Amino acid sequence: MAARNIPEINAGSMADIAFLLLIFFLVTTTMDIDTGITRKLPPPVEDDMDIDVKERNIFKVLINSADRLLVEGKAGNIGNLKEQTKEFIMNPYNRDDLPEKKLETINFLGDVWVSKGIVSLKNDRGTSYNMYIQIQDELTQAFKELRDDLSLNYFGVKFDNLVDDAKRDAIKKAIPMAISEAEPKDVGGK
Amino acid sequence: MREVTLRVMIIPPDATAVKKLEKKSMVSYIYVGIPLKTQLGTESRIQLNDAFANVDDIQEFIASEREARDEVDRKFLTTSIKADKNTRMGVITDIKQELRKIGAFKINYSSRKGIQKK
């Protein structure tokens, strides 16, 4: 039987083709990582349930249909909303018009003054979503920075880098994320 | 790798304090924006799954989303609101009210991580 010699296929360009395919898929694949601001909605209220909160414990933030801010009765600015919120929550000089504090014993932290302050956010139906997110963002940032400060003080790392869940809970308890959203009202029209 | 075809235009707002959404299988999406087809007008519309919907459809949508998950996972279900940044809050508020009614309290306002402004 005569030896059949098999014709050889030129595989020299194989690597090139594989490489080309790799590049193609690298470029075309989109991995949309979802990011966002996480919130928890309050359960629906049974008819007109009035919750009594002292005036000094509420930090009122209003956004009107023209995206203008009213913070504690005064025209506000998004630039210093974060600082205002932080000062309000912490009440560093124990002022009478800023929120009360309660002494609480928390694991890992010992006795801590926990602020009773609540941020009350109210928006109009005509407010733009962008503005709303900006405000939510500033408020979240304010609480985050407070938590970071406390965490750095006690554990030497930022809140986000805390691994121990029990410690995280302790910080969360010391600085609760108190953002309340008022029942919606239609003032400015659509 | 989106599972639905977007019928509305969405440019998410920028934020700095964003968190990554973990466990994608535990997330249901509500899209809000201006329809891509211009003949449908410029009013913000809600999109659930592949079709336009009204605010009243949200409860049903959430119920079906719950139905599709295991019973143990149901309480971890998060609703992500993907809305265009020029949407008026009226629509969003309506959605939030519906979500409260059906007990879907965990929500996420989808936003991109922007540059920190100082």
Structural features, described:
The complex is a heterodimer of chains A (190) and B (118). With 190 residues, chain A is of the alpha/beta class. Chain A contains four helices and eight strands, in the order H-E-E-E-E-H-E-E-E-H-H-E. The model of chain A has no long low-confidence stretch (mean pLDDT 82). Chain B has one domain (8-111): Nucleotidyltransferase, domain 5, CATH 3.30.420.270. Chain B is 21% helix and 30% strand. Chain B contains two helices and nine strands; from the N terminus they run ββββββαβαββ. The longest helix of chain B is centred in the C-terminal third of the chain and has 14 residues, at 89-102. Strand 1 of chain A pairs antiparallel with strand 3 (19-20) of chain B, so a sheet runs across the interface.
Secondary structure: number of strands of chain A: 8
Per CATH, the architecture of the domain at 55-141 in chain A is 2-Layer Sandwich
Helix content of chain B: 10-25%
Radius of gyration of chain B: 14 Å
What percent of residues of chain A are in strands?
15-25%
Report the CATH C-level class of the domain at 55-141 in chain A: Alpha Beta
The main pleated sheet of chain A reads as:
5 strands, mixed
The count of strands of chain B amounts to 9
**In oligomeric terms, what are we looking at?**
heterodimer
Domains counted in the coordinates of chain B: how many?
1
CATH-assigned fold name of the domain at 55-141 in chain A: Nucleotidyltransferase, domain 5
Concise description?
In chain A, 33% of the residues lie in helices and 20% in strands. Chain A is α/β, with parallel strands linked by helices.
Describe this protein with a few key phrases.
heterodimer, A: 190 residues, alpha/beta, Nucleotidyltransferase, domain 5, 5-stranded mixed sheet, two-stranded antiparallel sheet, 8 strands, 33% helix, elongated, B: 118 residues, 6-stranded mixed sheet, two-stranded parallel sheet, 2 helices, globular
